[in-house]
Amino acid sequence: MDNNRPKNHELEAEFCRLTGNQYAVAVSSATAGMHIVLMALGLGKGDDVITPSMTWVSTLNMIVLLGAKPVMIDVDRDTLMVTPEHIEAAITPRTKAIIPVHYAGAPADLDAIYALGERYGIPVIEDAAHATGTRYKGRHIGARGTAIFSFHAIKNITCAEGGIVVTDNPQLADKLRSLKFHGLGVDAWDRQSGGRAPQAEVLAPGYKYNLPDLQRRYRACSVTETGCA
């Protein structure tokens, strides 16, 4: 069973249709997705990342492991999510990313948060681990920018473990595909079935974060069959 195709491509295509975004990259977990997104954006020592205090530890772990600093801000007592006001108060010249969480499947105030990102030139990375099937003003979460979804066992759709990143940035998508599979320029399917050359060109140090096709075969890991479409 190949570790990158063709079931991965089916899942990625489903998520592009679901969210309306342009690119999708399946990964071994949402944590893996967060790791390589932050890495692809060049996060490192001396950088700050704004994230809510109400979040899972994996986000903080990935920030710290890259040498950056998590700046945890308070959440609204009613929604349990960050507010644009709290985010803006935490922005400094060191801020290199903003990670809002769509908590418990409810959408964060995306228009205002993206407006802040555009005003200050800071990337917004949506933690959409809970948000498969969630819509904001008529559009599915992940319709623009970059968002990370989870297929963990307790999520809306699952393949026991896994995740997917959607983005409208083609350069970021290419970096993620390389970083998730050893930093290679081609994946296992290309190497074995497509006659691609060179067979193992390493573009940068990478990880083994691909989602095995075997996991994608779980019926529960289907946008259409679980009613999330």
TrEMBL record:
Short name of any one Pfam family annotated for the protein: DegT_DnrJ_EryC1
GO molecular function annotations of the record: pyridoxal phosphate binding; UDP-4-amino-4-deoxy-L-arabinose aminotransferase
GO biological process: polysaccharide biosynthetic process
UniProt-listed Enzyme Commission number(s): 2.6.1.87
Keywords assigned by UniProt, alphabetized: Aminotransferase, Pyridoxal phosphate, Transferase
Name by which UniProt lists this protein: UDP-4-amino-4-deoxy-L-arabinose--oxoglutarate aminotransferase
Gene responsible for this protein: arnB_2
